[in-house]
Amino acid sequence: MKKFIKTKWFKIFIAFLILIILLIIIGVVSSRKASPITSATSPILKPFKSATAFVGNKIYGVNQNEEINKLRAENEKLKHSLVEYENMKKEVQMYESFLEIKKEHTDYEVVPASIIGRDAASDYTFVLDKGSTNKVKVNDPVIYGKGVLIGTVKKVYPTSCVVSTVFDPSIKISAYEITSRETGIVSSTVQVSKGKSLKMSGLKNSTVISKGGIVCTSGIGGMYPKDLIIGTVNDVTIAKNEIVPTAYITPEVDFSKLENVMILNNFKPQSIVPPESNEQK
């Protein structure tokens, strides 16, 4: 070995190796325009460049995959945070409405509830996550926001209940239009409810109710508290074979998008005529 180091061939090998290293350095630091030296030596350096590129791609590929996986994990975390934020925001809005109602009606006992099911065969019923264990009873009014009528509790189970909305054809609501103070009965039919509208019948021939009027519960009959908003008049027409006009009402909320509501579980219905009046007659 020592003899080989002292030979001419070893010196030639060292010189050749130094040349290769210099050419590699020149190729790296050279400009985009290839120099004559770079062009001349490119076939010689090609195997070295390929090897360098292979090793570099392997290292970069691993780092790139790690970065992609890290970004995906962060994205999933952000998505979950967004869902939690939206749910929390809706809960805050619901409880703000709850506090407003309690402030205006100290006699109300309000139970916040969430919709956990809808009847596929009917577009006017849904299921809430509150039941008899929360003191919910049949005929308890169901409202939304600061006082929008949604419907009535029809069936009660220990931890859930079924609600019939104002679109249920069996529900009749005594109501009035706030400007004219004219009263009538708000109800629904299959034909009307399919168009997501209600009708107000029993109006005067000379009714002054017009498009844009706001219709609220009158409290007459005792099924619902007074002044709950039902909706807005979108048309007033006299149907064929009818002699009195009918007002058609667009509900205040989009029932298909409802998620949270409130149940008035201690509302005490009032009789239309007090017992004392019956005795006087």
Written description of the protein model:
There is one protein chain. This protein has 281 residues and is of the alpha+beta class. 38% of the residues lie in helices and 25% in strands.
Please describe the structure with a list of short key phrases separated by commas or semicolons.
25% strand, 281 residues, disordered C terminus, 5 helices, alpha+beta
Number of strands: 12
Distance between the termini: 134 Å
The helix-and-strand class reads alpha+beta
Radius of gyration: 39 Å
The helix-strand sequence is HHHEEEEEEEHEEEEEH
Strand content: 15-25%
The major sheet is characterized as: 6 strands, antiparallel, barrel
Write down the overall mean pLDDT.
76
The strand line-up of the biggest sheet is 1-2-5-4-3-12
Shape: elongated
Helix content: 25-40%
What low-confidence regions span 5 or more consecutive residues with pLDDT below 50? 271-281
Q: Count of DSSP helices?
A: 5
Provide the fold topology.
Layout: H1 2-5, H2 8-29, H3 36-104, E1 110-118, E2 125-128, E3 141-144, E4 148-156, E5 161-165, E6 173-177, E7 183-187, H4 190-194, E8 198-201, E9 214-217, E10 229-237, E11 246-251, E12 260-264, H5 275-280
Antiparallel strand pairs: 1-2, 1-12, 2-5, 3-4, 3-12, 4-5, 6-7, 6-9, 7-8, 8-11, 9-10, 10-11
Helix pairs in contact: 2-3
Q: Quick gist of this model?
A:
The chain is of the alpha+beta class. It is built from 5 helices and 12 strands. The chain has helices at 2-5, 8-29, 36-104, 190-194, 275-280; strands at residues 110-118, 125-128, 141-144, 148-156, 161-165, 173-177, 183-187, 198-201, 214-217, 229-237, 246-251, 260-264.
